[in-house]
């Protein structure tokens, strides 16, 4: 039966399939609570919810006997690091340049799960990053790859570019051997991180991670991180892209996981003008839509502030009257970086005197203080 399931998975477009036991990663029972207790999950409160089920698949579903882990390649067509030099354009993480992987994988997992259930008269449950399932440790235990020092799964054949899905089943399959860690002494992924998000190898502090800050974090991004964000407007591929194991990877190419051309390096000026309806239309079917327009424009305005392009100041100025306080606050920060002292004070007199939001007022105070110090 397993061979038939593997053949079906390949037919559906999965690039890797391996099996592990539900109790294959017993150390999660201690490791996950320690990570949460340290606050490294930041504002992702959902990580705390049902933490016992994340750490132990048998707690989530006592009937599970095997965990089928599947991977789909989303290897980018070009080096994501090349986007960072295009300061007037936004850099979007490679996975988000494509159709939302939740939609792509979930439908295929359901089809494969149905096939398995019918083939073997067994029960199944399918998961794609929306349930209390620790996909990366389970994928490593199944032998899809190993968790690198940046905590991302690394494959010897597909590099860092794997989207993961899981099928819990009551079928009793023989487990595969876990993959050996092949990182060796390399620490490129740790050293390239712009915000020092790795307190130690194999440990991630999400509160400092650009992917977390630009996607999951809800409010203003701390000033200490804004310059380091550069033009990354949704996620960050630095630690993935620098991994030497990518030399064995292949691009996803055309078809199911092909990148959308308009999302590879979109102009910041164009993105800064999106209202909610235009945002929803442009990013329909992508992971970006789930973050919401206001947080996305927050990121775009930070990138504008980092661009060094005075011509983009007009786009930030337009956002000073935005309905969202979060957008207005980041517009002020961007203008503080791009405008001269006199221009900034003129904008303050027009836009700030009636401002009621304290975060926006604080940005104005900081921008004017910095402008005064620069002038002095």
Provide a descriptive summary of the structure in words.
There is one protein chain. With 376 residues, the protein is an alpha+beta fold. The protein has two domains: 1-266, no CATH class; 272-295 and 310-376, Leucine-rich Repeat Variant, CATH 1.25.10. Helix content is 42%, strand content 9%. A hairpin with a 5-residue loop joins strand 5 (146-147) and strand 6. Helix 16 (325-338) runs parallel beside helix 18 (358-375).
SSE blueprint and pairings:
Blueprint: H1 2-12, E1 16-20, H2 28-37, H3 51-55, H4 57-60, E2 66-73, E3 91-92, H5 101-120, E4 124-127, H6 135-142, E5 146-147, E6 153-154, E7 162-169, H7 188-191, H8 210-216, H9 223-229, E8 232-234, H10 238-241, H11 268-271, H12 276-282, H13 288-291, H14 293-306, H15 313-318, H16 325-338, H17 341-351, H18 358-375
Parallel strand pairs: 3-8
Antiparallel strand pairs: 1-2, 2-7, 4-7, 5-6
> Which spans of ≥5 residues are poorly predicted at pLDDT below 50?
none
Q: Estimate the mean pLDDT confidence.
A: 90
Please, how many helices? Answer: 18
According to DSSP, the number of beta strands is 8
- Terminal residue distance: 76 Å
The count of domains is: 2
Portion in helices: 40-55%
Radius of gyration: 23 Å
- Which structural category fits the helices and strands? alpha+beta
SSE series: HEHHHEEHEHEEEHHHEHHHHHHHHH
Main β-sheet, in a few words? 4 strands, antiparallel
What portion of the residues fall into strands of 2 or more residues?
A: 5-15%
Q: Order of strands across the widest beta sheet?
A: 1-2-7-4
Global shape: elongated
């Amino acid at each position: 039966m397993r061979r038939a399931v593997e053949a079906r998975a390949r037919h559906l477009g999965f690039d890797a399939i391996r099996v592990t036991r539900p109790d294959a990663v017993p150390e999660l029972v201690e490791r996950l609570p320690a990570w949460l207790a340290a606050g490294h999950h930041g504002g992702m409160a959902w990580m705390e919810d049902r933490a016992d089920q994340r750490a132990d698949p048998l707690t989530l579903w006592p009937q599970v006997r095997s965990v089928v882990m599947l991977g789909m390649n989303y290897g980018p067509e070009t080096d994501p690091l090349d986007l960072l030099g295009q300061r007037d354009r936004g850099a979007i993480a490679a996975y988000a340049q494509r159709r939302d992987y939740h939609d792509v994988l979930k439908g295929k997992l359901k089809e494969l799960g149905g096939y398995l259930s019918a083939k073997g008269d067994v029960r199944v449950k399918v998961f794609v990053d929306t349930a209390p399932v620790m996909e990366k440790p389970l994928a490593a235990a199944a032998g899809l790859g190993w968790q690198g020092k940046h905590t991302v799964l690394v494959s010897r054949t597909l590099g860092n570019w794997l989207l993961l899905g899981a099928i819990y089943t009551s079928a009793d399959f023989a487990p595969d051997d876990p993959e050996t860690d092949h990182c060796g002494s390399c620490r490129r992924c740790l050293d390239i991180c712009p915000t020092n998000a790795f307190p130690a190898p194999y440990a991630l502090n999400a509160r400092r991670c650009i992917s977390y800050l630009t996607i999951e974090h809800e409010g203003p991004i701390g000033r200490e991180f804004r310059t380091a964000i550069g033009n990354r407007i949704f996620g960050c591929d630095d630690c993935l892209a620098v991994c030497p194991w990518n030399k064995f990877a292949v691009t996803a190419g055309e078809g199911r996981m092909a990148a959308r051309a308009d999302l590879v390096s979109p102009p910041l000026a164009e993105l800064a003008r999106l209202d909610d309806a235009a945002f929803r239309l442009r990013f329909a079917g992508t992971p970006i839509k789930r973050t919401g327009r206001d947080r996305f424009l927050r990121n775009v305005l930070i990138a504008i502030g980092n661009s060094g392009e005075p011509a983009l100041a007009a786009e930030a100025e337009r956002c000073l009257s935005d309905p969202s306080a979060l957008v207005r606050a980041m517009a002020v920060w961007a203008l503080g970086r791009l405008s001269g002292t006199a221009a900034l004070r003129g904008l303050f007199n027009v836009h700030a005197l009636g401002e009621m939001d304290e975060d926006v007022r604080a940005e104005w105070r900081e921008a004017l203080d910095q402008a005064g110090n620069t002038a002095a």
